[in-house]
Amino acid sequence: MKGQINRKINATIYPIILLFLFLPLLLASRTTEEVRPEPYHSAVASKIAYSLSRYHYNHQSLSDSLSSIIFDQYVSETWDPNRYYFYASDIAEFEKARDKFDDFLRDGQLGYVYHIFNVFKERVQERISFAKQQLEAPFDFTSSEEFKFDREEDPWPANRAELDEIWRKKVKYDALNLRLAGKDDAGIRETLTKRYENLERSILELDSEEVFELFMNAFTESFDPHTNYFSPINSENFRIRMSLSLEGIGARLSREGEYTNVVSIVPGGPADKSGLLHANDKIIGVGQGEDGEIVDVIGWKINDVVQKIRGKKGTTVRLQIMQKDDVAAGKSTMISIVREKVKLEDSAAKADTMHLRYDGQEYVLGVIDIPTFYSDFAAQHRGDPNYKSTTRDVKKLIEDLQQKNVDGIIIDLRNNGGGSLPEAISLTGLFIKDGPVVQVRESGGDVDVEMDDDNAIYYNGPLAVLVNGFSASASEIFAAAIQDYERGIIIGNQTFGKGTVQNLIPLTRFVPRVDESKLGQLKLTIAKFYRITGESTQHKGVVPDILFPERYGIHEFGEASQKHALPWDQINSTFYNKQGNIQEYLPKLSLRYKVRSAKNPEFNYLREDIATASKIRQEKSVSLNEKERRDERDQQEEKKLQRVNERRKLQGLAPLAKGDKIPEEDEQKDELLVESGRIVADMILLSKEGLTGYFK
Question: Active site residue: 121, 301, 498, 528, which one?
């Protein structure tokens, strides 16, 4: 009887004990519920795979070699570029499927794709749990340790102990950055706890559609960086961005590791007008109004960050940003931008005059700033005779400048990311008599030559085109044509190198039996641009006749820096008549520029900055010793003050003391634009010295 009672008690107690023992695991399993593909994803994946193989410019077929590229793009680039999460054993397991991703796509079998994500999700939870444990211990910033923040080329961690050591230093690095920003220990723990929890939540909340989009982009970008899949929600966001109808700051953002990265600035938008936010800056905090709390957004999902930045017209958003070269040091800056609606007229071309005293003479030069190549197609279709377009606006600006008797004109295309191809062609026509402007090679091999058929020349005086590494696409077509015709001189930095054409295709065309609301769009590369000489603008961009020092080369931020970018190549030249002889001027123009720039303090400062930035970008580790980091920061501030005072001395102003606010009148002038004016003045002088005219 007693044994029966004991058995009954045991039968009751054991399940309770087991429940308490395994309750944490059961609760954890609910948070790590596996994400699985939706039934319709199979059809969408196979149709996208078919479409790319057939319609992409390269006609690249699904193969084991392409599968290997997709594997690296998905496992390493999408989920763990810095090798903070996966173990070497995870990668060894995944490697068994390296040559099977082509089959997964062809057959629409996505189970293993989601398995990789689910493993990643588990690893993220492990790391965040460990990171939060590290926050419980006291901080020690006196030891001589370094944190390696760039681990892209390092081996995958062999075991938990090795990964724990990486994360111990990572948490210390994050904490030291906050200490240097002025937070005390309690504030550091609070901020990092929220940051790590946000990072964990951003991964745990990824749904099936988001994982599918990330995988499909790992696939599409294996063809080239401009071929993309947009999920239904991101298709709508893309449409809004292209229509420029959103009230916000006018910046295109993307997720890069834990950070929100600024991809590009919308010309004429609030961010562009402020001059405070630039491409490749990283947004690490967002606050509302002039005094709202700055919310740490490191680790947030990109859509959540975008929603935080968007807001009503006229309201202020404060952003805590880190520039590219400041990431390692953890140095950040606070900026304020007033939100407003981005309008077409804000992106319109604008003109000003530059009064330049050079070589004992006075020159008045026209400067036409073109932020983008635009055309109001809706107004044009309505029959509005006053519709806005780049060419129409520039034509009026030229007329105004000629009435002011300018001695020459500079077209400023810096940071112009492109836009309307017809506008680039018609704008070229303002400066040449007629002829071909650009060649477009379709995926099937056919070549179309786009012509300027207007015999009229609206300006035939001295002309310079100023470009930089962020001048892309339509900007490169215009600059290349002016250079090939020798109609004007190209000045600045090697351009971005985007010489491809994309088309946006709704997936409803390929998957008709799936609910339209579940289908997105495919942005597909279908053609390439070629200069009239037959050389592609892809990858290489346009190399200026006179090169300025450049902080960031195209191999760091241009098309050449993009994995799987289509290569440079060449087709046959088309027939054209040169309409100038700039090459005759170049030796003397270049020599005068080199002599002048060698003595120019601003150019020397720029060269120093470039050398410093280059050195910083080569470093992959940073000190975790607080004194060393503070000393480095103090040295940077002293150097900055020294430079400010050197400029003030040249202007006959009294030097500033440490801690003094820099007056607005000390703001640096656009020396690159001024030097472009001197080069145009040299063109005029050389013409007077007896060389044949710059324009035939």
Answer: 498
